[in-house]
Automatic annotation (TrEMBL):
The keyword Membrane applies. It is a multi-pass membrane protein. It comes from Microvirga lotononidis. InterPro entries: Brnchd-chn_aa_trnsp_permease. This is Putative branched-chain amino acid permease (Azaleucine resistance). One of its GO terms (cellular component) is plasma membrane. It is found in: Cell membrane. Belongs to the AzlC family. The chain crosses the membrane at residues 22-42, 74-92, 135-162, 168-185, 192-209, 215-230. Keywords: Cell membrane, Membrane, Transmembrane, Transmembrane helix, Transport. GO terms for biological process: L-valine transmembrane transport.
């Protein structure tokens, strides 16, 4: 029993850390979730359909992109391509995070269903000090998944009663939060160059070409910038 206590204490400590770190993200996600549910409902989706979509897809950007182009009958190939392009960044995030998580290969593969921009950023920041454990990741992922599913469903039920969150700036909550997370990575030359190049390329592509091409373009530009800005010994 004495040998089990340190393990149990560490397990609980990791869960508490995950809950603490994800709490601001979960709060910021509420107006976005409600907005998605309301928009999806206005497009003709039932609350049940919104719930199933949020629970199975769990990708806010891709879901908004799909709803924006939703017509009857739904253009399945167009929606699938847009979703694939927007979520292609998850491949890069997964490759970056995999060596830093303390889970088996199968556990990592399954748990990355809960991979989001915010969970990735929080985990990368934590990995600067210690490995990312399964307990920490599960606490973040399950809370954010439940939060997104429940409140998008509620948004579908409430529908037009919500009004437009943009009036009070709630639509910018997630963006502002992620800017804060990125700022927490530090101010090294490589980090600053990577963020600046990625943001500039994404903004230019969005302006001249449009969504969803700016997502993949910004990600690829950031990777190239990070490689070129990294010290020569880190590349080898």
């Amino acid at each position: 029993m004495d040998q089990a206590n340190p393990f149990t204490a560490n397990y609980r400590r990791e869960i508490r850390a995950g809950l603490r770190d994800i709490a601001p993200v979960a709060v910021a996600a509420i107006p976005i979730s409600l907005l998605f549910g309301a928009v999806a409902s206005a497009k003709g989706l039932s609350p049940l359909e919104v719930t199933v979509m949020s629970a199975l897809v769990f990708a806010g950007g891709a879901q908004f992109a799909a709803i924006e182009t939703w017509i009857q009958p739904a253009p399945i190939l167009t929606l699938a391509f847009a979703t694939l392009l927007i979520n292609a960044r998850h491949v890069l995030m997964g490759a970056s995070l995999s060596p830093k998580v303390r889970m088996s290969r199968m556990q990592t593969f399954l748990s990355f269903f809960f991979l989001t921009d915010e969970a990735w950023a929080l985990s990368e920041r934590r990995a600067l000090e210690r490995p990312v454990t399964g307990a920490y990741w599960a606490a973040m992922g399950i809370v954010l998944w439940t939060n997104w599913t429940v409140f998008s469903s509620l948004g579908a039920v409430l529908g037009s009663f919500l009004g437009d969150p943009a009036r009070i700036g709630a639509d910018f909550a997630f963006t502002a939060l992620f800017i804060g997370l990125v700022a927490g990575f530090g101010r090294s030359r490589a980090t600053l160059v990577t963020v600046a190049v990625s943001a500039a390329v994404a903004a230019l592509v969005h302006h001249f070409i449009g969504a969803p091409w700016h997502v993949a373009s910004g990600a690829l530009a950031g990777i190239a910038a990070a490689y070129l800005a990294a010290p020569e010994e880190a590349r080898s």
